[in-house]
């Protein structure tokens, strides 16, 4: 499948409708994804990126229907990750001398994966490739999200090929932002940002300001996953600026695990206390073992504060609780507050461990941990309510 993006640009990627897990099991893709590659036909013909390795042969076969491979003058690799470079080895068997334009770091990542000495042409920010009526300008985007990443801007058509930035895991047909469900698109874009780009938020505002400082007219953003932003492409740039700036909504998320429902009861009464103290705040109460971890990360991303609860298990905390705390730590959220709670039988280490993990993740701990023995009775539940009320005061 291929489709026309503009008179000069053809989408030649792969829609992966069936994908449900990405990066191993690190990222859930409830709505599938796409690997977007683009063929530019000007005086020179340019291929921007390829697709994921399992689709390499299919990609080359389909590309052949659009162009004699020997007529591809240049390949641009915006990023060396396997979902975009996976078909390169298959393609280069047919056109081994074709120059590959990429950053110096992408030479390292491409050699690191494929161990081939292809005809690399390294580019830096501001370098220009003349392809006829249009020009391609390269903009390095280090750590968005690998050291090798860059954007490619095409003049004339006014398209920013942004690779993973502004992308989302969403299979769609047609693949344009104005033809998909807007709530799904917003959610998947935020999920991508929260789960992949949050650690690099400190770079994103500056990079966007740098791109805007070139004063390039922008008609479309063509990312490497999901739909093309052709209607009001600035909307996703504005969202990125918001998300990069320690984003939070008026939300508190309570994440808990339980074996016999004691910690769930604590969580529910903490929730009541929060509601009594604040009538407006959005509260989400989520069982960590039953909730998709990447969806949970979206809720943490939106929250100004979180509470994490878990019973003590073998002087420690549950696998699911430790897992989400480790993910939260890796994502380096900023300007968020937290506290811990949980039930126990005899030694009761869990809330202390949770607090330590939240501190390591950069959360400000605003309450002493709350622990209750065995299944909480009325008095214990009242303490939980009070804990919720106080938590609201403490995060003010
Ligand atoms: C396998 C297992 C291991 C446990 N290990 C500990 C422990 O090391 N220290 C402790 O204080 N309680 C321990 N407990 C007791 C639980 O913390 C207690 O039953 C708690 O009330 C369970 O909370 P829940 O109802 O939220 O599942 C353990 C319970 C189980 C089932």
UniProtKB/TrEMBL annotation:
Stretches assigned to the Flavodoxin-like domain: 252-392
Superkingdom of source: Bacteria
PROSITE patterns named in the record: FLAVODOXIN_LIKE
Molecular function (Gene Ontology), one example: FMN binding
InterPro entries per the UniProt record, alphabetical: Flavodoxin/NO_synth, Flavoprotein-like_sf, Metallo-B-lactamas, ODP_dom, RibonucZ/Hydroxyglut_hydro, Rubredoxin-O_OxRdtase
Family: In the N-terminal section; belongs to the zinc metallo-hydrolase group 3 family.
Protein name, entry field: Flavorubredoxin
